[in-house]
Design a protein that fits this description.
Layout (H helix, E strand, L loop, with lengths): L4 E5 L4 H12 L3 E6 L2 H8 L5 E5 L5 H15 L4 E4 L14 H29 L2 E5 L12 H21 L5 E7 L5 H6 L2 H10 L8 H12 L10 E4 L10 H5 L1
The structure holds nicotinamide-adenine-dinucleotide (NAD).
Nicotinamide-adenine-dinucleotide binds next to helix 1, helix 4 and helix 6.
Length: 250
């Protein structure tokens, strides 16, 4: 019961799996949540001190059960990482309501529902919430009407959670990753988008899952005990720049 526990959604692969591994290195236990049952079982199988739960974070009933199942296993939740996400890039005119809802229900509803379900447990530990948004929630771009808007919602949701949950000692922060070569990104990043990112990022490269996980783990830990309501871009400098980089590289 003394061992800290993180609940990470979207933990079967990508940034969520790298975050799981970092928590394990820190000596925490991890409740790994994902709706992809097969990939989750494969990821959890070889790892010690993890508890896989196959849950769709956009399903309110399943999420309520998830929180109880997590507590039954660990007795405590010290950090909730709302990382599960889907991407769908398309022009506004082609983004019908079904596509819009598919993105919103995981990216925004999921973070809302999981947090609501874990508030009581997080109050007991004076724990932390880390929401994963995106640079697409900080700056608008083409094709991202649903994805970018969902992530802008996650950014504001974080500030709302920090404002309202601070008096319970619960901290809420948001990480906005730049591009990382995961399954999610590679499904929507064309070669033109990859080239444009390289041009627009001062560090001139994609990030790694581990580089994102390091910031998530810091914000979840006591090292960040006076940090709440913050939005941190882990993006190689993308958010900080304006015009000029492509000309410089040319
Ligand atoms: P990924 O596709 O590799 O992993 C996402 C995981 O979430 C998958 O295992 C998937 O099964 C799970 N998932 C999706 N919807 C779910 C749901 N409704 N319920 C439960 N699990 C669900 O993607 P990733 O790149 O590791 O993305 C992780 C987070 O980082 C996402 O929120 C994404 O929007 C964000 N992000 C990623 C990038 C990037 O370039 N990779 C950039 C910015 C933000």
């Amino acid at each position: 019961m003394d061992q800290k526990t993180a609940l990470v959604t979207g933990a079967a692969r990508g940034i969520g799996l790298a975050t799981t591994d970092l928590f394990l290195e820190m000596g925490w236990r991890v409740v790994m949540v994902d709706r992809d049952r097969e990939e989750l079982a494969e990821a959890a199988g070889p790892r010690q001190s993890v508890h896989p739960l196959s849950v769709d974070v956009s399903d309110p009933d399943a999420v309520a059960t998830m929180a109880q199942a997590a507590l039954d296993w660990s007795g405590r939740i010290d950090a909730l990482v709302n990382n599960a996400g889907v991407a769908d890039f398309g022009p506004i005119e082609e983004t019908d309501f079904k596509r819009w809802r598919r993105v919103m229900e995981t990216n925004l509803d999921g973070a809302f529902l999981c947090t609501q379900a874990c508030i009581a447990a997080l109050r007991d530990t004076r724990g932390a919430i880390v929401n994963i948004a995106s640079i697409s929630g900080l700056r608008a771009s083409t094709l991202r009407v649903a994805y970018g808007t969902s992530k802008a919602g996650v950014i504001h949701l974080t500030k709302q959670q920090a404002a309202e949950l601070g008096e319970y000692g619960i901290r809420a922060n948001c990480v906005c990753p730049g591009p990382v070569r995961t399954k999610l990104a590679m499904a929507v990043h064309s070669q033109a988008i990859i080239d444009a990112y390289h041009d627009a990022i001062p560090l001139n490269r994609y990030g790694s899952e581990r580089e994102i996980a390091e910031v998530i783990a810091f914000l979840s830990s006591d090292k960040a005990s006076y940090v709440t309501g913050q939005v941190i871009a882990v993006d190689g400098g993308f958010e900080s720049t304006g015009v000029g980089l492509p000309a410089l590289r040319g």
